[in-house]
Amino acid sequence: MDFSNTSNLNSTVKSQTLFCYESLSGSCVRIARPLSVQVPMFTSMVLAILVTVIGNLLVITSIAHFKQLQTSVNQLLVSLAVCDLLLGVFVMPCSAVRSVQGCWYLGGFLCKLHTSTDIMLSTASIFHLSFISIDRYFAVCRPLSYRLIITNNTVLIMITSSWLVPAIFAYGMIFPEINLKGREDFYETHVKCIGGCQVFFSPVAALVASSFCFYIPGMILICIYSKIYWVARAQARSIKDVSRQFKEADSGRRERRGANILAIVVGVFLICWSPFSLCLIIDPFIQYSIPPLLGDTLVWFGYLNSAFNPIVYAFFYTWFRRALRIIISGHIFHRGSCRFRLYSE
Length: 345
Known about the structure:
The chain starts with a helix and ends in a 16-residue tail after the last helix. It is globular, with a radius of gyration of 24 Å. A two-stranded antiparallel sheet has the order 1-2. It has a single domain (36-333), classed as Up-down Bundle (Rhopdopsin 7-helix transmembrane proteins). By secondary structure, it is mostly helical. Helix 3 packs antiparallel against helix 10. 74% of the residues lie in helices and 1% in strands. It is found in: Cell membrane; Endoplasmic reticulum membrane. Belongs to the G-protein coupled receptor 1 family. Residues 55-313 form the G-protein coupled receptors family 1 profile domain. This is Trace amine-associated receptor 1.
């Protein structure tokens, strides 16, 4: 056999291998993508970032400006929009560069900061949705005690918990490297390299993180909205049988419609983040054999949830569409515009 061709082939492959830092030993291998692939990737990611930032800015502006919209559930919604906005401003751009270039050029500290902020904001989103579901539960299922239980202080505690608990969990796990416990040797040998910023979890850490950040809150959301659904159906039948003319009936219909719309928001969140959460919990138990490209794609599919939320509001909430028209037309700058009525009480 002639081994000269094989030798030449191996040397050619080696010469074509690209690294994040060509002059450093231990550098990560860089994925060489042609410009025809990089441009569509970067364009689509920039589009997702712009929709996320602009859409959530409009939600924040609408609820913060119009006094009629400053209800308990909308205060939680605006806090959720801030969470999505921060994801679009600080996390998604860095992730876009890493995804397109295949390398992380910002150093180890910023890698940890980026990863922990990413986890915190994603977890904060589902915490907000959980508290919103609790608000809707009392509004629909316990309307007489709603104003006694869901007070301004209650909402403040909900919002604070939605930010503080995920922050403690995310930064407390990533910076002390608790996520590596039990698999440090594997990480040092097979994963860690210069120019990389991979999210790595040991089996126990993956189980704890996915349960805390997704599965347990997700099950709570499904259970609460299932209860709301059945109570709302029963109430709708009762109201239809009794009368259609009472204000209480109109208010009840509005609360139920709001709960249904927020259930759609929850459904979008679960659909967007379920694939990544499933891979996160499976990967350590199959020796980390899920391709990095697939993991990166699923992360971006999860990011799209932050862009979808304002679209859902615009599609289903008449008050949001009216607020958008006022903002875009410039009437928001008129004196007294904050008192405009966007829906009938």
